[in-house]
Design a protein that fits this description.
The chain has 2 domains: about 55 residues, no CATH class; about 240 residues, Rossmann fold (3-Layer(aba) Sandwich), CATH 3.40.50. The chain contains 14 helices and 9 strands. The chain is an alpha/beta fold. Helix content is about 45%, strand content about 15%. The radius of gyration is 21 Å and the shape is globular. The two termini are about 25 Å apart.
Length: about 325
């Protein structure tokens, strides 16, 4: 939001509330599909083409700035945000796993060339925040339609296409109940082609809640959780995988998350890795819009999970304030 020029490269960025006010800054967009240019923000310069090749052509035309203060501020903010994420992932509540820990523990274990897929629930928030992609990795999710349930079929397709690369899917229990469990029969049917090394892992976040929508209703609509539409049955996903002849790993202990990942990534049989995670951990953005905060507070007053939300939200936000204290950046380096 704080810029003099908005440069969008190969993205349609659907979150318009984080963009500058229309007309307040200049706009440049590169996209291989000309229909996508200008749909989020009015652009002065339209570049239709491959992002990599377009940038190669444009870079010689740019004059580097000698004043690096703005870049240094961004670098400092990124370091601060990384520490905030680390602090939040270390928090633990009420005998279930912090979902942030699941993603935080996987990231340093990712091997070169791995393929990552995700659904469209709250698990995808942690997937996007914590997994550090490196050169050679690929990541896929339903970024345009936010379709429920693509993580498992994406992973199966990736494994068929790239049998020599590790494939890891992040899926919520709602999506896994919708189509993932049936697709495990597909995995069993083609086990001779989908199994073997490197691993094929389906990581299921079991919180018995359609969690993304629950939090969107709170923050966007000011509505408390309605259990009748949001709660879903507790299904033993790991044991279901074992019933089919696949591997199943279950973890409900915070200090065993890393070990669970090590087991999942070490085997040659496709595995369902089930984590019993905390559904009251709020997917707090780095900046909360006033209206969102007001609506969330309104919802919380009448929400059946008020107590847990309040404690978790306070501690998660406290980690952010702590890392932004004067001198923390130098002390952490």
């Amino acid at each position: 939001m704080n810029c003099d020029t908005l440069f969008m490269i190969g993205t349609s960025f659907p979150y318009a509330e984080w963009l500058p006010d229309e007309g307040s800054v200049r706009g440049v967009q590169i996209d291989i599909d000309g229909r996508m240019i200008g749909i989020r923000y009015p652009m002065e310069a339209h570049v239709v083409g491959d992002a990599k090749e377009s940038l190669k052509a444009l870079l010689p035309l740019l004059d580097p700035k000698q004043d690096r203060s703005w870049r240094e501020k961004i670098e400092k903010d990124v370091r601060t945000w990384d520490r905030i994420l680390e602090d939040r992932a270390a928090q633990h509540f009420d005998g279930v796993v912090n979902p942030q820990t699941v993603a935080a523990e996987l990231s340093p274990r990712l091997s070169e060339g791995c393929i990552l897929t995700a659904g469209s629930g709250s698990a995808t928030n942690w997937w996007a925040r914590y997994l550090k992609l490196r050169k050679g990795m690929r990541a896929s999710l339903s970024g345009t339609l936010a379709t429920m349930g693509p993580g498992v079929p994406y992973a199966i397709g990736a494994r068929f296409a790239f049998p020599d690369r590790p494939v890891i899917a992040f899926v919520g229990d709602g999506a896994f109940q919708m189509n993932g469990m049936a697709e495990m029969i597909t995995v069993k049917r083609y086990a001779d082609r989908l199994g073997g090394s490197p691993p094929l892992v389906f990581c299921v976040f079991n919180n018995q809640d359609l969690n993304q929508v629950t939090w969107e209703q709170r923050a966007m609509g000011g509505d408390p959780k309605f259990p009748g539409s949001q709660d879903i049955p507790d299904v033993p996903y790991a044991r279901y995988a074992e019933l089919l002849g696949l591997r199943g790993i279950y973890c409900d202990q915070q200090d065993k998350v890393g070990a669970a990942w090590d087991r999942a990534l070490a085997g040659e049989t496709p595995v369902v890795l089930e984590f019993k995670v905390d559904r009251e951990i709020p997917p707090i953005p780095p900046h909360i819009m006033y209206e969102q905060g007001k609506k969330a507070a309104k919802a919380a007053v009448r929400d059946p999970e008020l107590a847990g939300m309040a404690v978790r939200g306070f501690r998660q936000k406290l980690a952010e304030f702590y890392e932004q204290l004067p001198g923390r950046d130098q002390a952490a380096r």
